[in-house]
Structure formats: C-alpha cells, structure tokens
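Chapter review: from sequence to fold.
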Amino acid sequence: MSLSLKEQYDKIYKYCYFKVRNAHIAEDLTQETFHRFFSQNSYISRGKPLAYLYTIAKNLCIDAYRKNDEQPLLEDFAVEDAKLNALETSIAVREAVAALPNDVQEILLLRFSNNLPVKEICEIFGLSRFAIRRKINSGLKKLKEILREDDFT
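The token string follows.
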C-alpha cells in the first residue's frame, strides 16, 4: 500500500464515523474492517487494497445500520455560544449532504474528508475520472443550492 497503515486506519475510521455517527461503533467497524482485510491474504497481493478496504467498511456500515434502528441525532455536548454556532452549521451541512444521493455522499466524503485522489475513488467505484468529477461537481453545486436556501452563503 502506498499510504501508511495509520493513515489508512484514520481514513477508514472517518468513513465509518460519517456513516454511523457514533464514535464507539465507528471504532468497532474500523477494527473489524482491518481484521477482515488482513484475514483475506489472497486479495491483498492482487490489486486494489484501498478499494477493498472501503468495500469492507461500506458493507459493515450497512450491516450496522440495519442492526441499529435507533441512531441518536446528537451526542451530549457541553455547548458554548461559539460551539453552538459551529454545531448548527455542522448540522445544516450534514442535513444538506444527507439530501444528496448516497453515491455522491460517499464520493464527497472520500474526496474531501479523507482526501483521496480522484484516481483512487475511480478504483473504488469502478467509474471513469470524468464520471467521478461530474458527480463531485454536481454534488457541490447541489450543496451550494441547499445551503443558499438555508442562508449559509
């Protein structure tokens, strides 16, 4: 793998946390992702390990979502005025992202939260660079429209 194991772990954790919105569950899913990845030795040596990691993580997040119907909207926060504004903005952005199609949400998460290059996102989704860039651009345009409606621009 071109990136260090620690970097991969952090990125998979961010991905899982974005999906399940619970730090403890995200940690468990991340650990399970790497456990399954390393227990499958035959795949590691042939091809796209990063794409395989994200595929495992995605499937585990889907399974976790199906098992847990009750998702808390927010964790308990000790909120000050500045933190409250940041929290409100975060919720608005999260809701705007949730309004996008699932594949666009995942592409934006991988690109901007996990800082993956478009080439690696192409490998994960099996799409061309043009298709990924089109989805990124249309997703960002839609986010701007939604946030503009909510007076965040």
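Two observations follow directly from the output. The longest helix spans residues 129-149. Residues 46 and 135 are 28 Å apart (CA to CA).
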